[in-house]
Request: fold
Amino acid sequence: MQIKYKYLIIILLGTTIFACTIRPQFSIIPELTYTGLSSNSMTQSSVLGDSIFLYFQFTDGDGDIGVAEFQNEFDLIITDNRTGNVYDRYKTPFVPEQGASNGIEGTVSLKLFTTCCIFNESIPPCSAPPQFPTDSLTLDIQMFDRAGNASNIITTELITLFCD
Reply:
């Protein structure tokens, strides 16, 4: 009976060691997975008022993620779906190529500051008309790697803006 346990332990150890050396099979094109927001509402403000956190995960098969500090490029773009305009853009931390050839994966937590409520053309943005107490928006997020590959686009759930 003890011989069976020895073989079982040897098989389990061999499987564990083999599993630890398997290279992840990520695409060389970055892939994003939306995981959520810290809140689904904010109060409008024009300058650094309210904020929420955006959470998502990413993978990249060749690990060429990030922008060097001296570069003037942005590789993470967030678009406001109300207007199609850029909501914000970021430089992700540079990941050195050494050690990243097996691919890379990670989780991003990003602080997003609020924006203004937008109304029809006769009402100025960032105002607080009583007939429009709220506005809502969704945001699209896309990442680019150093080779120029564009990730899939992920979209947040609906975010309510309180206009008062």
